[in-house]
Amino acid sequence: MACLITAGRTEPCKDSLGGIRAAYFINYVEDPFTITDGEAIAINVDVTEAFKYELRADGNNFAQNKVSDRNTGTNVNTQTLTLALKQLDKETSLQVDLMSKGRPIIVIEDYNGNFQAAGISEGMDLTGTDINSGGAKTDFNGYNLTLTAMEKDLAPFLDESTITALKALV
């Protein structure tokens, strides 16, 4: 049976960091990556550009919620990306509006050097925005965005050559 567990896991060292360093937006294309065993090993030639969003705030998060249902035989992974883009400006407002109309694929780079691709089958939808100027002088001024996708599998990790190819598209 193909659903049997094939490996265990030891307790890892306490040497990782939480948080997201950057998000790379790719306009939707079918099959953006070649995936083998949960790893993206190549990027589709139809992906010709990527747009990097640098992130340096604690409000940035990528979460996956995998749910299996024995009664229906389904297995769904809800991917949720929360971004805090500091400082309001005309260009970012335009891009946020375009995000809401499109369905980008987003590669998330964390502080441990991992790159994961979210929304690879149908793209991610901008499902929530809080565009805020702040009330007090020290309040957050910018864009709080929530993007979601429903996928069959967990977000694949990119291998080194695919990371290099992605960065070349920025």
Number of helices: 2
Query: What is the subunit organization of this protein?
Result: single chain
- Strand composition percent: 35-45%
Model regions low in confidence, pLDDT < 50 over at least 5 residues = none
Specify the biggest β-sheet. Answer: 4 strands, antiparallel
Average pLDDT confidence is 94
What proportion of the residues is helical, as a percent range? 10-25%
- Categorize the overall geometry: globular
Q: How far from one another are the termini?
A: 42 Å
Describe, in plain words, how this protein is organized in 3D.
- The strands form three sheets. The protein has a four-stranded antiparallel sheet, with no helix packed on it. Strands 5-6-10-9 form a four-stranded antiparallel sheet, with helices on one face.
- The mean pLDDT is 94.
- The protein has one domain (20-168).
- It is mainly β and 170 residues long.
- The termini are far apart.
- It has two helices and eleven strands.
Keyword list:
single chain, 170 residues, mainly beta, 4-stranded antiparallel beta sheet, 42% strand
